[in-house]
Design brief:
The chain is of the alpha/beta class and about 160 residues long. It has one domain: Flavodoxin domain (Rossmann fold, 3-Layer(aba) Sandwich). Helices cover about 40% and strands about 25% of the residues. Helix 1 packs across helix 6. The protein is globular. The N and C termini lie close together (about 10 Å).
Length: about 160
């Protein structure tokens, strides 16, 4: 059963999480929203995720979900968000259709971060300041690897 992991990543963290999920899921294909398939019917499962900015997920993800709500609902699916908030459930509830969330195999938040190479404009200035302060590649990344592993395990347990 082939899995589509579709993501949108403004600062690199969502891409990093999608790739970490791929490592845990055999036959998973990671696709940036800019290269999203016209149809998801060739996949046995679909996982959709991205960062939360000012309380919302990427507009391209919202549009994709709106267009494909019926097809997503017909196959096992899951959602993830990348955000600094300790309670990602409110962002999941606010950004994904409730019927899809209620029937999701998994829905969780994977943490937050900012990779300086992804930053543009003012975010790049902020990342540069953090780089100087923390001597890192950007805003310190705080990923919950145990959540990613538990999320993947739920999909691996599907028969």
């Amino acid at each position: 059963m082939k899995t589509l992991i579709l993501y949108a990543s403004k600062y690199g963290t969502s891409e990093k999480c999608a790739l970490m999920l791929q490592e845990k899921l055999p036959k998973a294909e990671v696709v940036n929203i800019d290269n999203a398939p016209v149809s998801i019917t060739k996949y046995g499962t679909v996982i959709i995720g991205g960062g939360v900015y000012a309380g919302r997920i990427d507009a391209r993800l919202r549009k994709f979900i709106k267009t494909h709500t019926r097809d997503i609902g017909l196959i096992p699916h899951g959602f993830f968000v990348c955000c600094a908030d300790e309670n990602p459930q409110k962002f999941l509830q606010e950004n994904f259709p409730s019927a899809l969330i209620e029937n999701a195999i998994a829905a969780d938040g994977f943490g937050s971060g900012l990779e300086i190479g992804y930053a543009k404009g003012f975010a790049k200035v902020v990342a540069g300041i953090f780089k100087l302060i923390y001597k890192t590649g950007g805003i310190p990344t705080r990923l919950f690897k145990e959540r990613i592993e538990a999320f993947a395990e739920k999909f691996n347990n599907l028969k």
